[in-house]
């Protein structure tokens, strides 16, 4: 592989403008595809095969209506000032104006169905009284009991709260489903609503209709700005520092355009997907290019014997080299560092692509989109970057940064990395024990980790969605935000028996712990099926609601035995709860797959049993500590970073594990390959570790700092998943790069000595040989590596 990559890098340097032109055409093609195919992202997060989802489909099939998960509808919540009600004259006048304005909007369909909550509540009370009174009288209830029963049902259906202060009504945007909603239509409706807010009437809104795709940008710019500073310090040159940034921009730009084009081909891409892919693509894109440019610099220093040269002096030496020689150095840098880049990128791709095995469409889309940006980042680093090196030519190390002296790792002078690893070598047991203990202590909060799907109750404080949720919670009760629906199947019973079974279901469900109220809302004409609305006592993200759902499902077995009928529970709350459970179930198997995969891949690369074992266990420690601190900060409210502690999003852990696995293996490869390279070339085990650490520590430190800055910048975003994911990834990089790879790994290797690099002969024979260190590039020049006939190419001056 090293020779193939050498050819690619050398050819890209020679034919720089052809390679650059191809990437420009790719960008134009991707932009055209995005312009022609892009649609709104979907906010649906469902999993095939869930009982609650299948029950939801059956409810729609039997009783009709829109799918609450996909319908382009939203809820408008209106509220009178404290101490007043919606019936007060001034409040009612403003409410009537709001209704009239919405009815006149051309962005909303079925405007005739928009009715103010007071009118709707009065009509509902009349209909409920007329429908229920005969049924309840037939059951022998007194007038007082009938009134109480109707009032109880009305309390969970009425669009006006008991105190008369808050009301709700539904609007439907002019679209087939939520994915087809135009952002400008949402803006037009929300602007209209906001313009009708007065001192007499406050208004908020939530639901599918008001979920729109937001394309960010500020977080990426902040992350790149910090990355630029790190790169300038690393190379001491503004030009060299800019190359990884340019490479990352091309890669991420191509990936994002293709992802947006994909929204026109599938409805599984949600609004989080492009942002997550951008976050990962930027981080790995900058790092992969950094490794290659850094290797290019090292190869140049070694070739011109330019130890401790200033960037300007190094540039002068580089300019003296013939064009063929400069192309050879580009080939060597891609052949050696590029091999590690390919392997590192492959580990990220495998970890992300493996998420598709779980068969969760929205999670698969997120993983494959992130994997796409990583794959493009690898290809860009191997083809576009050496072409830009050729285009820049002798000015690659020009534009020296003042006050920055980038030390040469080939120099005999001790670097900071060498000083650190010498301390670890003196006391490996102390460093190993302290590091492991620290990570284990930080992992303790993970025992209290709670997972939940995103709802309006987890939206940002002060957002319209969160405000609407809170008003409903305060004035209608917490359970109003978490309704459950039971679909009761009479299983072929005659109508009279079926109706008795349905009534029994209402009675038994009402007695379940955590249920505030249950009522029969619909029944088919033949009494084959009935629908029961269940109002819990708690909200959508409350652990008690999950227990209530479990209690209802436990009841079903007894109910079926007693009546011959059966029921299943659905509703958005039940569906989201089931998704969380499914994600929790697959988490441990996925972790096991990833750790085993890490062990096998690293065993192939390093020809060792101990090195992959250390890497896999270190990965497990860094992930555990990351989860622990993430739970502490975002769920428990440590350090006051968030004023709104919430359960972690259900798919955060599994996505985090997949991504961190790939990043951890990146650092393992780039750091330990130089250690192994020294050992196989005759150094003692201890000296090989120290020397390899010296060579790799600076670039790995720079890479880790860049990743941390890119990820940390996303904490500034409003989207909950991205905010927490950015924080968790930054923590994971810190723990894995600085505690695991730069402390635990060298300490353990020092303790193991020669045993660390041993592999049973029978196993060595059957494992494939992978040249990650570029051992095949042993020639002094291109002729020695490829043969003279392959080196006769026309090149420019490269000036």
TrEMBL record:
Domain spans labelled SSD: 257-391
Membrane-crossing segments per the record: 221-240, 245-263, 275-293, 340-362, 368-392, 429-447, 587-606, 613-635, 647-667, 699-717, 729-752
Record InterPro entries: MMPL_dom, Mycobact_MmpL, SSD
GO CC annotation terms, alphabetical: plasma membrane
Protein's UniProt keywords contain Membrane: yes
PROSITE patterns xref list: SSD
Membrane topology classification: Multi-pass membrane protein
Cellular localisation: Cell membrane
SUPFAM superfamilies: Multidrug efflux transporter AcrB transmembrane domain (SSF82866)
Domain of life: Bacteria
Keywords for the protein's UniProt record, in alphabetical order: Cell membrane, Membrane, Transmembrane, Transmembrane helix
Protein name, UniProt field: Predicted drug exporters of the RND superfamily
Organism: Corynebacterium variabile
């Amino acid at each position: 592989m090293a020779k193939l990559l050498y050819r690619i890098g050398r050819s890209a340097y020679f034919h720089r403008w052809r390679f650059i032109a191809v990437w420009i055409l790719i960008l134009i093609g991707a932009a055209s595809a995005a312009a022609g195919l892009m649609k709104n992202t979907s906010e649906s997060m469902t999993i095939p095969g869930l009982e609650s989802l299948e029950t939801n489909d059956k409810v729609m099939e039997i009783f009709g209506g829109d799918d609450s998960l996909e319908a382009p509808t939203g809820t408008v919540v209106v509220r009178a000032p404290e101490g007043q009600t919606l019936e007060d004259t001034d409040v009612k006048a403003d409410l009537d104006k709001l209704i009239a304005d919405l009815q006149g909007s051309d962005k909303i369909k079925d405007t005739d169905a928009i009715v103010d909550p007071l009118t709707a509540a009065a009509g509902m009370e009349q209909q409920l009284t007329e429908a229920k009174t005969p049924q309840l009288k037939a059951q022998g209830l007194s007038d007082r009991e009938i009134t109480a029963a109707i009032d109880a049902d009305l309390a969970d259906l009425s669009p006006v709260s008991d105190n008369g202060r808050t009301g709700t009504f539904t609007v439907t945007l002019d679209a087939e489903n939520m994915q087809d909603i135009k952002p400008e239509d949402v803006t037009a409706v929300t602007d209209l609503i906001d313009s009708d807010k007065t001192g007499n009437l406050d208004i908020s809104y939530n639901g599918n209709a008001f979920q729109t795709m937001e394309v960010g940008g500020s977080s990426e710019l902040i992350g790149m700005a910090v990355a630029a500073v790190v790169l300038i310090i690393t190379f001491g040159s503004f030009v060299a520092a800019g190359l990884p940034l340019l490479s990352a921009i091309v890669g991420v730009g191509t990936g994002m355009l293709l992802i947006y084009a994909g929204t026109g081909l599938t409805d599984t891409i949600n609004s989080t997907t492009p942002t997550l892919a951008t976050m990962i693509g930027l981080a790995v894109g900058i790092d992969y290019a950094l490794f290659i440019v850094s290797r290019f610099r090292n190869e140049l220093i070694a070739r011109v014997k330019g130890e401790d040269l200033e960037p300007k002096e190094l540039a002068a030496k580089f300019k003296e080299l013939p064009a063929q020689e400069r192309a050879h150095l580009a080939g060597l840098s891609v052949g050696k560092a590029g091999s590690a880049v390919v392997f590192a990128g492959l580990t990220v791709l495998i970890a992300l692509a493996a998420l598709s095995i779980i068969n969760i469409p929205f999670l698969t889309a997120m993983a494959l989109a992130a994997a796409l940006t990583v794959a493009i980042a690898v290809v860009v680093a191997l083809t576009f970057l050496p072409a830009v090196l050729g285009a820049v030519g002798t000015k690659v190390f020009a534009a020296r940064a003042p006050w920055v002296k980038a030390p040469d790792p080939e120099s005999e002078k001790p670097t900071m990395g060498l000083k650190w690893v010498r301390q670890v070598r003196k006391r490996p047991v102390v460093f190993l024990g302290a590091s492991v203990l620290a990570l284990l202590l930080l992992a303790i909060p993970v025992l209290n980790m709670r997972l939940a799907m995103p709802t309006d109750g987890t939206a940002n404080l002060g957002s319209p969605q969160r405000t609407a949720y809170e008003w409903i919670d305060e004035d209608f009760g917490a359970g109003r935000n978490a309704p459950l629906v039971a679909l009761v199947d009479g299983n072929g019973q005659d109508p009279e028996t079926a109706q008795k079974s349905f009534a029994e279901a209402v009675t038994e469900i009402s007695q379940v712990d955590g249920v505030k109220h249950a009522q029969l809302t619909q029944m088919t004409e033949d009494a084959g099926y009935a629908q029961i609305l269940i109002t819990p006592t708690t909200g959508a993200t409350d652990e008690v609601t999950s227990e209530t759902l479990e209690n209802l499902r436990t009841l079903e077995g007894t109910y079926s035995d007693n009546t011959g009928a059966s029921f299943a529970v659905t509703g958005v709350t039940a569906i989201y709860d089931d998704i969380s459970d499914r994600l929790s179930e697959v988490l441990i198997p996925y972790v096991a797959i990833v750790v085993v995969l890490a062990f096998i891949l690293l065993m192939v690369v390093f020809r060792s049993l101990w090195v992959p074992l250390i890497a896999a266990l270190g990965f497990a420690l860094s992930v555990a500590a990351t989860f622990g601190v993430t739970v502490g900060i975002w769920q428990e409210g440590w350090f006051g970073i968030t004023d709104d502690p919430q359960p972690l999003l259900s798919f955060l852990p599994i996505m985090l594990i997949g991504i961190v696995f790939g990043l951890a293996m990146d650092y393992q490869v780039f750091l330990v390959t130089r250690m192994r390279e020294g050992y196989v070339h005759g150094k003692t085990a201890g000296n090989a570790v120290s020397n390899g650490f010296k060579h790799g520590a600076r670039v790995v430190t720079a890479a880790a700092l860049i990743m941390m800055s890119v990820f940390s910048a996303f904490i500034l975003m409003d989207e909950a998943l991205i905010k927490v994911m950015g924080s968790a990834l930054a923590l994971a990089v810190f723990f894995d790069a600085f505690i695991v790879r730069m402390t635990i790994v060298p300490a353990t290797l020092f303790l193991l000595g020669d045993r660390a690099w041993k592999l049973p002969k029978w196993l060595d024979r059957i494992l494939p040989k992978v040249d990650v260190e570029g051992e095949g590039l042993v020639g002094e020049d291109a002729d020695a590596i490829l043969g003279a006939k392959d080196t006769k190419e026309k090149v420019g001056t490269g000036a």
